[in-house]
Amino acid sequence: MTVPASTGVPILRLGDVLVTGLLNELDDKTAVAFADELTERISSDGARGVLIDISRLEIIDSYVARMLMELTTMSRLLGARVIVAGMQPPVAITLVELGLQLTGVETALNAEQGLTALGWHRSPQAPEGVLRDAHR
Amino acid sequence: MTVPASTGVPILRLGDVLVTGLLNELDDKTAVAFADELTERISSDGARGVLIDISRLEIIDSYVARMLMELTTMSRLLGARVIVAGMQPPVAITLVELGLQLTGVETALNAEQGLTALGWHRSPQAPEGVLRDAHR
């Protein structure tokens, strides 16, 4: 990995989709480091889609909201589509009260729906043969 | 959320699959908190599968290796299948040198293959209609 884990939040690569999440109590500095790391990873991994789960985020301020909007714009410029998933109702209420409508940010009800929108879906049966099982 | 974010690592729920990752420099206390939180989440979310991405883990010790084995056993008792994905070659070498073969732990080359094994797959085209787009 070329990018240090500055935010302490893992960014998982699922094919051409990056999956990550925000924790509660996100301070401004961590928010900036998160945006920087994610844009770096979009570029280095050649990601076409990004899923950001914010279901753990219980409060949001205008700084973090703006970070999400800027991150979406930057990602789009890099060719990746960002979906913000799992927003809690109090966060949505706060955003409206702040007058921040997250213009341009795609949202999904939860991470599952977000990942589906990014082109993954649940198969009826798990395929065989892709595992290396320590049993064998 | 009933479980506090004790480890600072988000656990994403993708339908009946939980997805999480370990960061490098995992100390013993965090490893235990991670295992506790994950088993709680398996139970509360009714998860059938768990994907643990360890691609960021550059070194492993016997404590963390045992945590992964115990976590796998506990998860199986709860009815969930655990896949550890993205192990780096030096970590595999260390495990063999330590005589820890992670018996019972299913592994996958990367998070993408792990998630595929847990029943998600990449669709050729992203479906429409699951998004709420702030543009509209």
Walkthrough of the structure:
Two copies of one chain form a homodimer. Chain A is an alpha/beta fold and 136 residues long. Chain A has four helices and seven strands; from the N terminus they run ββαβαβαβαββ. Chain A has a five-stranded mixed beta sheet. Chains A and B meet through strand 1, strand 2, strand 5, helix 4 and strand 6 of A and strand 1, strand 2, strand 5, helix 4 and strand 6 of B. Strand 5 of chain A pairs antiparallel with strand 7 of chain B.
Which descriptors apply to this entry?
4 helices; 7 strands; 136 residues; five-stranded mixed sheet; disordered N terminus; homodimer
Write a short abstract of this structure:
Chains A, B: It comes from Streptomyces olivaceiscleroticus. The structure is a homodimer of 136-residue chains. Helix content of chain A is 38%, strand content 19%.
> Could you say what the CATH architecture of chain A is?
2-Layer Sandwich
* Strands of chain A, count: 7
Which structural class best describes the helix and strand composition of chain A? alpha/beta
How many domains in all of chain A?
A: 1
The first-to-last residue Cα distance of chain A is 31 Å
- Identify the strand order in the major beta sheet of chain A: 1-2-3-4-5
Return the CATH class of chain A: Alpha Beta
- The helicity of chain A comes to 25-40%
The overall pLDDT of chain A, averaged over residues, is: 85
Protein name (chains A, B): STAS domain-containing protein
Organism (chains A, B): Streptomyces olivaceiscleroticus
